Structures are given as C-alpha cells and as structure tokens.
Amino acid sequence: MAKEKTKLLRGGLQKVPTGVVGLDEITNGGLPKGRPTLVCGGAGSGKTLLGMEFLVRGATRFNEPGVFMSFEESAEELTKNVASLGFDLNRLTASKRLLVDFVHIERSEIEETGEYDLEGLFIRLGNAIDSIGAKRVVLDTIESLFAGLPNPSILRAELRRLFRWLKKKGMTAIITGERGDNALTRHGLEEYVSDCVILLDHRVTDQISTRRLRIVKYRGSTHGTNEFPFLIDERGIVVMPITSLGLKHIVTSQRISTGIPRLDTMLGGKGYFRGSSVLVSGTAGTGKTSIAAHFVDAACRRGERSVFFAFEESPSQIIRNMRSIGIDLQQWVGKGLLQFHAERPTVYGLEAHLASMHKFIEEFKPKVVIVDPVTNLGSVASEADVKAMLTQLLDQMKFNQTTILFTTLTGAGDPLEQTEVGMSSLADTWLLLRDIEIGGERNRGLYILKSRGMAHSNQIREFLLTGKGVDLIDVYVGPSGVLTGSARMSQETRERDIELAHQKEIERRKLNVETKRKALEAQIASLRAQFQAEEQELKKLTEQEKMRQNGVSQLREKIAGMRKEDENSERRNR
Amino acid sequence: MKTKGAGGPRINSEPKKDIWELRLYVAGQTPKSLGAFANLKKICEEHLQGKYHIEVIDLLKNPQLAKGDQILAIPTLVRKLPPPIKKIIGDLSNTLRVLVGLDLRQRM
C-alpha cells in the first residue's frame, strides 16, 4: 500500500487501461486508478456494455478481476446480452475472474420503519470483491436504488459513503447513471463521483442514429474534449479517436502508378504520390469508377492490398462493369488482395460508417483505399459532417501512408469546380472529369485541376473507355476550338485529307521535275552526241589533211626524183 | 399506539397453527441493530405471542448470506413465513408501520 502511495505521488494520477478500443487514447491511458468514474447516458446508450467491457478486458487482458453489480438485469440476462459481442461471462465466472451479482429490489415488498443504512450492500460488495480479489467494480445502475428504497436523504448519504469506501479499497470503479433532464444524472450522482465523468449519447438525426462519447471531466488529467463517435459491434465498443491524429504525418516522395499510362505521364510521368489523397470529381457517367478501378488494378498488380468502399454499387456489379473495359478485379478478390466493402449510406450514421471503415482499414491494412462516391454519404449527414468525417479518414490514411482515392459526384448544373462538400481542399491531386458537348454528342474530357508537389500537365485530354481500359488521347485544339469525339475525328480526317492532298501535290511535282531532269539529260546526251560526231568529223578531216600533206610531199619527192634536175639545181643552189 | 392493538386479537384468532418465521439481518452490534431487535421482540410478544421464531443473522459473520434474501439495507426484517415474503427495513421504531409491513394490521 505504502509503495503504491509513493508511486502515486511520483507519477501523478495513475490510470487503468479500459481495453476499450479508442477510449484509452482519448483519456490518455484509461480511467483514474482506484477511483470511481461516472458513466452517464440515456436508455440504450451503451452504459452497461461499457461497464461490462471494462471488466471483461480487465479480466482477460490486464489480469484484473472485476465485480459487476447489476441492479437492473440478472446475471443470466447479462450473460445472454453480451454473448453476441463475444464475451463469455460463464467462462470468466468459472475461472473466478468475474463475478456478477444481481441486486434485486422490489419496492412493493419493502416497508420502511425507521432509520437504516446500506451496510448490507457494503458487506455484499465487499464479500464479492474479496472472494475473487477484484480490482475493478461496476455498479449498474445504482440509481435504481432510489426507486427501490424509500428515504432519498439516507440513500444520498449512503452513496457518498459507498464511493468513499470504494476509493479507500482502491477499486477502479464505473458507476452508471441514467441521464437526467437538466443534469447529467437523474439523481445528481455527479456530485459524488467527480473524478471522471463520461457521457454517452445516442442521437437520431434524420432517422439515422449515431452514438457519441464525450469526457465531461477528468480531474487531474488531460483528455480529448470532443464528442467522439463510437460503435457497438461484434467486438464490443469502438471509439474513434481519429481527430487526435492531427497534421503530423510524415510524407514520402515515392510515386505510384495510376494504372493509366497516359495519366501517369500527365502527372509528371510517375503517377500519384504514395500516401496522398486523390479526388476524382465529375458529373454522372464520366468514368470516375473506371479511374478508381484502374488504380486498384495497378496496386494489386504491384502486390499491394486495396479496399474498395462502394456506396453506390454492389461488388459484383462493379466487377462486371469493370470487366467490360478490360479490368479483371475478380482475380484480385480471389487472391485476397482486394476487398470490397459495399453498403448503402443510409444503413447507419456517418460515424458508424467512419468507424467501420476505420476498423476495416486497421485490420486489412491496405495500401490503397477507394471511396466511391463519397458524396453519397451526404444523404445521411450534413456537408460539414461529411467533410469532418473525410478529414478524419484522410488523417488516418496519411498517417499509415495509404493512398486514398475518393470520387465525388457533381450534380447536373452545379459548378464543376466546386465539389459538393468543399472537399477539394482535402485532396492533394484533383482530377476533373467533364462532359464536353459538341456536335450533338457528349464526350468525356479529363484534366488535372491540381496536383500538389509535382509538375503536371495543364492539358485537357479526351477520355475514352475502350475494351482495354481507359485511354487518354489529345483533344483537337485548333482555330475552331476544342473538339472531341466524332467532331475531333472528322476534323482529324479533314486534316488528314488536306495533308494527303499536299503530299500528292508534292509527289506530282517531284515526278514533274524528274521528267524534266530526264528530258534535260536526254538533251544533254544528244548535244553531247552531236558534239562528239562533230569532233569525230574534225578528227577525220585533220587526218585526211595530214595524209594529204604526206601524199603531197611524197609526190613532190617522187616528181623531183623523176626530174633529176632538181637535184642538180639543188646542188647548184648550194 | 398500543391502544390500537385492538387488531391483535383478530389476527390471533385467524391463523391458528401458523408459526411466524422472522429473520432479522444486522451487521454487528450497532445501536440500530440492537434497537431493531428490541423493537421486534416487543411487537412479537404483543401480537404473536407463542407462535413466532426470530433468527438474527449477523452479516459481518456470514456475509455470503446477504445475497440470498437480497439484503441491501441494514437492519432488514424478513418475514419468511407465512408467505408472501415481506421485507421491512429500518430500526423498527415505527411500530405502526411494522405492523402494516407484517400484515398484522390493514393499511389505513
């Protein structure tokens, strides 16, 4: 005991983990050790369950046996009620880790005849605590004593004494109380139990119920002050402390493919950042789901796990539709890489959606998450709520470096660049899909409105859904504006025709020149031949002349020889 | 109050062979429990002479017995017999209410 006291002094307020998912985070460690905590809330807000889970987790995880003193339900009823949550009370009772004591008071059987005290309850509780060495106590709902026993002033004094006694015994206790009209509890229990007060709320807005939890006060400790949505499902209570994450996530510059090669090129050649958030917005039928499917397909190809939260179509419908554009998602489902989580938004409240998504993600640990379309959640909550929820989801994603792609549906007539719940500021990359209406037809166009932290294309691309998936092609941008679809095709054909004509013309001219050249060459050849002939003739003439001259001199000699006198004369001349 | 004991003989004549089994739960020798026992004894002698049986249970000695009769308040008097079971809490100083509680007297 003395040791414990010094420990208390040194470490400030000691806390006992409840084991309830999320509650220990918002209370920074659990409930105050050795003190009573008041849990109040209306009927069906989950008070009993919170108390029971506190004991069950204590017994199974923290080796702290507990006593559950029930004033409303019998042990059998309780056992049955919590069995659906996976709590086996019989086993815990048999192994002396839990003791359920049903205190039953029948007002009609009781007559008050003078002063009394609740020593019987003290003895009973003390006996229960001692018999299993309990560290935790739950009193559910002690206020029913006010209905069962007369003389409230005695009861008040006795309850005050009870809480003091529990404190002295070092019991970490949960006392539940019914929510009062203007006070936290109907009989003002908060006056006596003032260390820690937790308020549970079960609200119905637009026929959708949401459960919320709030720490009203926690003496000597910091705690989350918000209202936290919580969920009761097959694993007990799950509180969502997501807002506590904040903007502290570490980012990576790793890039991952979008699954569409051309889109990768548009995004600086590498695709999205890992752990970023991608918003795909567009009007109905612009191919938002197809872009998401491509991304999922690419992730699964890399061997990464993905989750597809569908709020509009059933998994098999998505798989069938994506097969029509050549994406086989079924194979990834079969390999366990892809999980679908399809639900109508209206099945439960936004918080419950968030909680179940959160839990799903925590368990499956996907690398890629798709929410399609996030705007459908707007049908169960206000825009601000959806945005808040999305912020929480994104924080969680970024914290785990999971890439999230969410689609939003822009209603007809709404401004295209204004997403329904102002979610654009949450997105790191925003792809806008839009219809381009020209020449009596609608075609899809895609552009990147923003992409934080990367160079990206500013070009509009025509978005085609083919049997081999999404294809992005350049739109025709010319003097007559942006053209898509058949207008683009006819324009392209027209251009091709003109081009062809041009080419023909050039070819024709080439041919022309060629013939000309040939003609010229022929001319040159004939001229050369003429020249050669003339040359030949000249040669012949010269030769003849030579021969003639030779012939003349020979003849002259011959004649001279014949004359003889010439020789003489020659001598004479000499 | 004792003058209103007129109802006593009427009751006395009604159940003849019945033995009244009464159990008084106390926690130690506190003034309240001692007072309650004294008050009970007096009432029984007055109204049920010779046909009652009082058992005093000290929960400090037998804490596990508190569960059986669903005892919270101390002192509690339980009428085991005749049925139905009746519970009277407090130190039994209000004799009229004790008599009403034990069905020894009609409610006014």
Describe it.
The complex is a heterodimer of chains A (574) and B (108). With 574 residues, chain A is an alpha/beta fold. In chain A, the strands form five sheets. A nine-stranded mixed beta sheet of chain A has the order 5-4-7-8-3-9-10-11-12, with helices on both faces. Chain B has a single domain, classed as Glutaredoxin. Chain B has four helices and four strands, in the order αβαβαββα. Chain B starts with 6 loop residues before the first helix and ends in a 7-residue tail after the last helix. The A-B interface holds A 101, 103-106, 109-121, 123-124, 126-127, 145, 149 and B 25, 27, 32, 36, 59-60, 63-64, 66-67, 70-77, 84-94, 97-98, 100-101.
Write the topology of this structure.
The complex is a heterodimer of chains A (574) and B (108).
Chain A: H1 2-11, E1 15-16, H2 23-26, E2 31-32, E3 36-41, H3 47-60, E4 66-70, H4 75-83, H5 89-94, E5 98-102, E6 110-112, H6 119-132, E7 136-140, H7 144-148, H8 152-168, E8 172-178, E9 196-205, E10 208-218, E11 227-233, E12 236-239, E13 255-256, H9 261-266, E14 272-273, E15 277-282, H10 288-301, E16 306-310, H11 315-323, H12 330-334, E17 338-342, H13 350-364, E18 368-372, H14 383-399, E19 403-409, E20 429-438, E21 441-451, E22 461-466, E23 469-474, E24 476-478, E25 481-483, H15 485-563, H16 565-573
Parallel strand pairs in A: 3-8, 3-9, 4-5, 4-7, 7-8, 15-19, 15-20, 16-17, 16-18, 18-19
Antiparallel strand pairs in A: 1-2, 9-10, 10-11, 11-12, 13-14, 20-21, 21-22, 22-23, 24-25
Helix pairs in contact in A: 13-14
Chain B: H1 7-13, E1 20-26, H2 31-47, E2 52-58, H3 65-68, E3 76-81, E4 86-89, H4 95-101
